[in-house]
Specification:
Strand 4 (38-45), helix 1 and strand 5 form a beta-alpha-beta unit. The longest helix is centred in the last third of the chain and has 35 residues, at 342-376. The chain is globular. It has a 9-stranded mixed β-sheet with strand order 3-14-11-15-9-8-4-5-6, sandwiched between helices. The two termini are 48 Å apart. It has helices at residues 52-67, 82-92, 101-115, 127-130, 142-145, 156-166, 186-189, 195-198, 221-225, 272-275, 279-294, 300-307, 313-334, 342-376, 385-392, 394-407, and strands at 7-10, 13-16, 27-29, 38-45, 71-79, 121-124, 150-151, 175-182, 202-207, 213-216, 227-232, 237-240, 243-246, 251-255, 262-267, 411-412. Helix 11 runs antiparallel to helix 14 (342-376), helix 12 (300-307) packs antiparallel against helix 15 (385-392) and helix 13 (313-334) packs antiparallel against helix 14. By secondary structure, the chain is α/β, with parallel strands linked by helices. The chain has 16 helices and 16 strands.
Length: 413
């Protein structure tokens, strides 16, 4: 790890350590045995919609921490409040689907069951919606992003404070909250408000990514000052202004410039196939499928019925074929009314049938591809109906979220 200045040795390999390149950062190797901790892990995010990668990041963090000798009592999966989702979707101004938190929680519970892991207890929680007192105005962000008005949201610090004060296992002596993120999220953490107070009650548990470096755009002095120790189990360089802060060497390190007591653990990344999963990919897949069906005359709500209550992909394809044939049958029948000789009618019918079959095969290929992508994200055929239904009903759900927020007095404008 290069931060320029004093030299220390770790084992037999010379490593150059530095005087701090940012205030609050002066890492030195630690030969002390790592303090064994007891954790409740928190995985939070938009999860719009959730997928197995969201679940696996929590379970992988639990497994890695346990391998290091720590105890993991539970892993909490907390999707963001509907107010936040309304703000985000509205600010984008496009057709991004809006999945209400009740749907996201149900999907998460299904995904957790699907993983069938015994790494730790897993809970999908709606803490943000159940604690309206946590909602705050956002003059620095949402007021600028949505000058016409926005809904109050729950800041990260508020959620952490609420969990540490109320979640039963976090009331047990010596148990600490672990905030689980991918290492790429560290760049955004440098912009957090009051990171020192936020990390007073929590440690950072970061999973590596398939990226060689994370560059911090904002001075991370306050964030780094809150971190007194580092356990680095994966190499991902973290830098600011061209200088590496940490992540170039494995091992345990102390931050001599720290004023806080929080710990940062950098753990190995998820398997590559899981790391590539994303909610955006799911949304794009659904959109492509809706468009392909619409091009054959099947509207969104008719399309939803093709996927609800199915048992396997062949059943979906049978439904698709029936729907396409039902839509095309009037065109086939219309050929019988043409004022041409019977031989001509036969040729037109044959040409139409050939084109229709080729088109149907293309559509089936598109639908099969979509089902494959959804399966990779943890949605088996029997579970994809909720994804399609949620996407089709998105505009109504968005309007409902806005109306509820205004009714509760949470709209700021």
């Amino acid at each position: 790890v290069h931060t320029g200045g004093e030299q220390h040795t770790n084992n037999d390999e010379e490593v150059v350590w530095s005087k701090p390149c940012v205030e609050g950062m002066e890492l030195v190797p630690s030969s002390e045995a790592a303090a064994r901790k007891s954790y409740v892990l928190l995985v939070s995010g938009t999860m719009n919609p959730p997928h197995r990668g969201h679940v696996r990041i929590g379970l992988s963090a639990a497994r890695a921490l346990k391998e290091q000798g720590h105890q993991v009592k539970a892993c909490l999966f907390v999707p963001v409040h509907d107010n936040y989702m309304w703000n985000k979707v509205t600010s984008k101004g496009d057709d991004t689907p809006f999945y209400p938190v009740a749907q996201r929680l149900a999907m998460l519970e299904s995904l957790i069951r699907g993983e069938g892991s015994d790494e730790c207890e897993c809970h999908a929680l709606d803490y943000e919606s159940s604690a309206p007192a946590l909602l705050e105005e956002s003059p620095g962000y949402w007021a600028k992003a949505l000058p016409g008005g926005y809904l109050r949201t729950v800041p990260t610090a508020g959620l952490i404070g609420h969990l540490t004060a109320n979640f039963p296992q976090l009331q047990e002596p010596g148990t600490r909250l672990g905030l689980v993120f991918g290492i790429d999220n560290l760049a955004g953490m440098a912009t957090w408000n009051r990171p020192g107070s936020l990390l007073a009650k929590a440690d950072l548990v970061l999973l590596g990514r398939a990226t060689p470096e994370v560059k911090l755009a904002k001075d991370p002095a306050e964030l780094l000052a809150a971190l007194s120790s580092f356990e680095i189990s994966a190499k991902v360089l973290v830098s600011f202004n061209g200088t590496t802060l940490f992540g170039g060497k494995l091992g345990r390190f102390k931050n001599a410039g720290a004023t806080g007591e929080s710990m940062l653990s950098l753990l190995p990344p998820l398997e590559h196939v899981l790391e590539t999963l994303s909610s955006t990919m799911i949304r794009e897949c659904l959109s492509a499928c809706f468009k392909a069906l619409a091009a054959r005359g099947i509207d969104a709500f008719s399309a939803v019925r093709l996927f609800v209550g199915v048992g396997d992909v062949p059943e979906v394809l049978r439904r698709v074929e029936q729907a396409v044939n039902a839509h095309n049958s009037p065109h086939t029948a219309a050929l019988g009314g043409l004022a041409i000789d019977p031989a001509g009618v036969g040729k037109l019918s044959e040409a139409f049938a050939t084109q229709a079959n080729e088109d149907l095969d293309t559509l089936k290929g598109q639908v099969t591809g979509c089902m494959d992508i959804l399966a990779q994200h943890g949605y088996l055929p029997s579970a994809v109906g909720v994804l399609f239904q949620g996407a089709a009903e998105s505009k109504l759900a968005l309007e409902h979220a806005s109306a509820k927020g205004r009714e509760r007095g949470e709209f700021v404008g």
